[in-house]
Amino acid sequence: MLENPQYLRDSSSMSADPLSDALAVADARSVFSGGFTAGGSWAVRLHGRDKLKVLAVVRGSCLLVLETGGEPLRLAEGDVAVSDGRQPYVLCSEPGLEPLASGRPLMDPATRMARLGDGEDEDVLCVSGHIDVSRDSGELLRRALPELIHVRADVAEAEVLRWLIGQLAQEMTTSRAGVEFASDQLAQLIFVQVLRICLTEADGLPPGWLRALADERLAPALRLMHGDPAHPWQLEELARAAAMSRTTFAVRFKEAAGVPPLTYLLNWRMSLAARALRQDTAPVATLARSVGYTSESAFSNAFKRAVGVAPRRYRDAVRS
Prior knowledge:
This protein is α+β, with helices and mostly antiparallel strands. Helix content is 40%, strand content 19%.
């Protein structure tokens, strides 16, 4: 039996829940950032940088304008938008207004709420958080998502999302003990619920692990690979789990995931290894065995091809 270090979260018996696995391996950390009320005419530019930006409309409506172009997107009460953070976008009451930079509006330090616009009424209330993916060197999450996700409040699966948004808004406005911790956890749960909704609307997803997971025929094979990444999986075994022929399974998997099944397995092993190198001091040889390699040199060569640097150099770089 292979060694089973804790830093791989018992890698030889993983959870077989690819969504939870990906969030953990990407070291995705939810951080509550604040929100704003607005009235009259207003516009603000928001940046994501190394973060997935999560925005929820608690009250009223507004327009979201991507700076890469396209038609403005109307966000209604209860809607959630998640951007991949690569490009800034503008939230506004109407098109054509000069936006403020996100750091310009004065924010109440107690509630982290800002006030925008020239109107006396507070017609709009938005709250936001971000998912820090700066530790995800392979961009596991970002590559699986479109540039912008828009979840409407009227979709069948959005009831839980609406409740979470309401709880987040309440935390922000009451300033109870533990507000920062509670808000961060709520922002994380909002993001997970958005991803769950994405799984029901996979046509809008780019090829990747999330789109493959949304395919009920492929999901059993994904769960096998995630449940035991060290096992020397063969195409026949995975196809059999999906109740398909080898050829049909290979074609369908590549169309959904963007890579062949065994390439996906290799990439997943390297993602596990990268996380372990960031978080633990175990010898590279031990880590290699935990992701299915009997030879440290074979593992090191595979890791260098996938990540660009050798395992020890990667560990030194991330720790410095």
